[in-house]
Amino acid sequence: xxxxxxxxxxxxxxxxxxxxxxxxxxxxxxxxxxxxxxxxxxxxxxxxxxxxxxxxxxxxxxxxxxxxxxxxxxxxxxxxxxxxxxxxxxxxxxxxxxxxxxxxxxxxxxxxxxxxxxxxxxxxxxxxxxxxxxxxxxxxxxxxxxxxxxxxxxxxxxxxxxxxxxxxxxxxxxxxxxxxxxxxxxxxxxxxxxxxxxxxxxxxxxxxxxxxxxxxxxxxxxxxxxxxxxxxxxxxxxxxxxxxxxxxxxxxxxxxxxxxxxxxxxxxxxxxxxxxxxxxxxxxxxxxxxxxxxxxxxxxxxxxxxxxxxxxxxxxxxxxxxxxxxxxxxxxxxxxxxxxxxxxxxxxxxxxxxxxxxxxxxxxxxxxxxxxxxxxxxxxxxxxxxxxxxxxxxxxxxxxxxxxxxxxxxxxxxxxxxxxxxxxxxxxxxxxxxxxxxxxxxxx
Length: 444
Hints:
This protein is mainly alpha-helical. It has 22 helices and no strands. The longest helix is centred in the last third of the chain and has 22 residues, at 422-443.
């Protein structure tokens, strides 16, 4: 089955949210926009809000002034001026206590993050942690761990991202669904499918327990893991959620494919029809497959309409084979008058005589003997007929109906040379000879 799978290589995450960092009296967690991981903008900030307090050194006025200057420059997005204030502060580092030093490095990290210089930002955020727990408020420590993890995502160092995420999980309160979804992405990137699957399933379960709809990319990731394990039953269940909450043609098609794998033919047909109605079937192969499904489900007229519409919209090529299929669908639907023109066009385009041979039989059944002979002649002219014996019988019968007994017997005798038609042809020969003799007697 050809389905859209979750790729192993996530696209580069881009930080675009500008965060006005509060004055250091109220340390904040930097917001990292990780759209591909489904992490909301409030995620990074929410976790630190309810952390336990920890006694740390206080912020003195001299340090506060430097950070205030850096804050003003940052608010104006004057990053060089902000860095200048921080460097001036760092020059007197020996006079700073551990808490003040941590806040200085945190602000360094924020400025470099804002400048999209992520390796430098990571380095400074790590220096925040190096000041030791005795100098860090719990919120600052926890938030910095998460920020470093997020920035490692940005630089695509997923092993380190996972390392810091696990450190953050160990100390953070109120781990939520977004937390598990983020870590699931990290595990996925380092190839630990089992733990990634466990985390994304936990995230989805937490949302559903609260009556919330899981995020689309969470369900996509869960679907990927089930598909990778060939667990089609659960793939179908996830796709059912995607179809319900995020209805897209691609999901309809994928779910139809899963129903096919599970031998749920009726469900597959209904889902494919939903995909067709939604306009998700645009390729020739998809449209023809839809038509075949309708024909196989004893709804040939629907199948014919799919092909006819596809040809008119130039999504299905007007080839002999496709016109033959259209004619067959109309014929199955007892729409013979619509079938014949399509079959004639198909026969004209074909390089073989088989379709003309079929037309000869159709016209014979309609008692249009002259048309039967016309189609039969075209069939013989093109040649390469799979069952010429059957065509000879049709021509023999059509000629007999027109009282052209000599021509009839000629074709019937040719049919009798084939063992597959010998018995039937001889019966007709007997009948035609008797009719020919009767006509002669009446003429006397």
